[in-house]
Amino acid sequence: MGQVSWSWEADVKEGKLARFKKDVVVPWNIFAAADPDTLISRWAVDESLASVKVYQLFTSAKAAFEQFAVNECWGKLDEYLEPTAMYVFGDYGKDLDFLREHGAIFMLDL
């Protein structure tokens, strides 16, 4: 099974960016840095400070799926953000199919 990645985008709720960085991004980055199956994890904010995006690359779809159980920050996102888009790339198999129900778009290699 090969690597899988996703990008997840969201608008920041009014007045929530500073707390989002403190309560979600900092612990998220600590978790990702310690996880051997997370190869890349990068949060970014647009210049207007209104939208954020996370890009993550994992060793496998199974490792990506396990993030929802082990990274408690996923449960905090709705407090700070309004999701706008999610794209999944790579060897995602069936492990991540549940994301389709949440609007994820699964990309195919060209």
Describe this structure in words.
The chain has three helices and five strands. With 110 residues, the chain is α+β, with helices and mostly antiparallel strands. The protein has a five-stranded mixed beta sheet with strand order 2-3-1-4-5. A hairpin with a 5-residue loop joins strand 2 and strand 3. 17% of the residues are buried. The model has no long low-confidence stretch (mean pLDDT 94).
Helix-and-strand structural type: alpha+beta
Order of helices and strands: EHEEHHEE
The quaternary structure here is single chain
Biggest sheet details: 5 strands, mixed
Kindly provide the radius of gyration, computed on alpha-carbon positions and rounded to a whole number of angstroms: 14 Å
As laid out across the biggest beta sheet, the strand order is: 2-3-1-4-5
Gap from first CA to last CA? 19 Å
Question: Hey, roughly how much beta strand do the residues contain?
Answer: 25-35%
Number of helices: 3
Structure described in brief:
By secondary structure, the protein is an alpha+beta fold.
Which helices and strands appear, and what pairs or packs with what?
Blueprint: E1 4-12, H1 17-34, E2 38-45, E3 51-58, H2 61-70, H3 77-80, E4 81-90, E5 105-106
Parallel strand pairs: 4-5
Antiparallel strand pairs: 1-3, 1-4, 2-3
Key attributes of the depicted protein:
single chain; 110 residues; alpha+beta; 5-stranded mixed β-sheet
